[in-house]
Design brief:
Blueprint lengths: L4 E4 L20 E7 L1 H4 L12 H20 L4 E5 L2 H12 L3 E5 L4 H14 L3 E4 L10 H6 L5 H11 L53 H14 L6 H4 L13 H5 L5 H14 L4 H23 L22 H6 L6 H13 L4 H14 L4 H11 L5 H12 L13 H8 L4 H7 L17 H12 L1
Parallel strand pairs: 1-2, 1-4, 2-3, 4-5
This protein binds flavin-adenine dinucleotide.
Amino acid sequence: MTRPALLWFRRNLRTHDQPLFDRLDGGPALGVWILDPRELLAADPLGFPRAGDRRRRFLFEAVADLRQRLRGLGTELIVRTGEPEALLPTLMRASGADTLTVVRHPGTEERRIEKKLRRALGDRLDLREPDTLFASDDPRADARALPEVFSAWRRQMEKERPLAAPRPTPQGLTPWPHAVDPGPLPTLTALGRRAPDLASDPDPRAATPFVGGETAGLRRLRRWAFDGDHLRHYKTTRNGLLGDGFASKLSPWLALGCLSPRHVAAETLRYETERVANDSTYWLRFELMWADYFKLALFKHGAAAFAAGGPSGSALRWSNPPGHFDAWRHGRTGVDFVDANMIELAATGFMSNRGRQNVASFLTKNLDVDWRWGARWFESQLIDYDPAANWGNWAYAAGVGADPRGFRGFDVTGQTRRYDPDGTFVAHWLCDAPDRPPAPVVSVYESLARAEQRWRLAQG
Ligand SMILES: Cc1cc2nc3c(=O)[nH]c(=O)nc-3n(C[C@H](O)[C@H](O)[C@H](O)COP(=O)(O)OP(=O)(O)OC[C@H]3O[C@@H](n4cnc5c(N)ncnc54)[C@H](O)[C@@H]3O)c2cc1C
């Protein structure tokens, strides 16, 4: 009989295109999801919850959906709370599992856990290589050879490699031979969280309801790309700020692996066959390549991705003037475009890409605040938080990415004129913020010219 395998679902919370189902060969499979308090309940060094309640709620919905879907395939998702490296070996003994299957993750904390599991389980740990968008025999070798410039990597991949096809979803899995206590699903209530900020959730001003789980993710993809036909115009609308359809808003599902990037890419190809192939249909794949690039970059750079000087090891530092960071995170800088975006983030757990670029640039360049503070705030607030995408993008925005490509700062006034010309976005988020100060809380900003000077000095 094929060996019974415990499948540890970490970030790939889905049943379609699921690498954990490879090589099961008809053997019994049991899923497990673990609430690791260090990742989901602890505070970060600034005192913010590492995962805010909106992200927790979205995640817990995704876990509940995964359990339903695994049951539909004939097996179970057991849920436990604790440190995976301690829990999993015990769980294997108790359940009679022969192997533990898990997909490698680029994060430094995740890799430490993998090492501990290897020590505890030896070759009973079946550590799978991560999936990439482009077909690859050895993604970690690809990561070691990763060019520091995204476009160089993309061009090379597009020339040399096909996009990898998603795996078919199995019709069923072999159930576990005996009953195992599934454990209760995680909920905010069980954590004692009835946070007041969730009382009006979803916020009535939010355009897109984000419900966690593969089922909701697949529905969003279908509705946005096909039913709403938004994919057709994506390249021209993607810099939008307000509304439901300007971009895919698939990131929360992609970040948790409720959606597979390979599946999303395959759906764009299907759209091209059935409807139209144009710059927009390509551009969604192009953006997915960014996510893949940052994943490989995190494998490559490891701890440097989280250090002050970033992957480039820059000498650039920030003076963190008192009050600047708090004004920024509460949407009280007095700069409407920045404040509107920050209020949207706090109210919904989401911000457009245009917004993120601007607020990150403003914090690090104009307010002279350490980029890691901003990255931590985003980590706490974003429902689509992904370590590789978040810290990678922040490092770029701060000018300490592996490829700084010269100084890049956003002129927020010009950006507002361009992307919110009639002020609709700002009005949408600021009209209900009556306690905002009439005058800027932060009265002295660095000019971009000064910020550029600092950056140049740090380049040596
Ligand atoms: C400072 C900063 C922090 C960010 N933090 C995160 C994060 O924690 N998680 C996250 O998923 N994205 C992050 N991004 C990238 C990007 O802003 C979001 O992926 C995007 O806004 C999500 O909206 P969407 O799904 O509508 O994107 P779309 O425009 O529809 O793009 C489709 C998908 O491509 C991927 N993608 C697009 N742009 C990027 C990018 N620049 N980097 C990596 N992947 C990208 C995402 O998976 C996204 O869902 C960050 C960007 C900045 C500037």
